[in-house]
Amino acid sequence: MAPSKATAKAQSARKAAKKGVNSRKVHKVRYTTTFHQPKTLHLPRTPKYQALAKVSSSVILKQPLNTETAMKKIEDHNTLVFLVDVRANKRHIKTAVKKLYDVDAAKINTLIRPDGVKKAFIRLPADVDALDVANKVS
Q: Of the four listed, 28, 54, 67, 134, which is most buried by Cβ atoms within 10 Å?
């Protein structure tokens, strides 16, 4: 007599429980000892704001500083003092001064004030008078 359907199902379940259902898992054969990360999708960048290098010079140089110490620097050290964008570096400031006022900067020193605003000291060459440039600025 042939076993009934239920008995056959029970026999196969017993066999599966004894042997295990995941026994025939095939592992991928690797031929090299080094693992190479698979290539994934590279999406183009989507910046949330424009890069500072592409911004106009008037955004980089916010305003000239005309305190007593700044005026003393203009007269004594041939140096202009500006408040600049915090993200601007010395190269950005140098090109902005060249573009706006047609003068080359000999040296630029920067600092960030305690209130979070960046200040730039723009030293001009000896042949350019900082007082003349300051009058053109104001």
A: 134
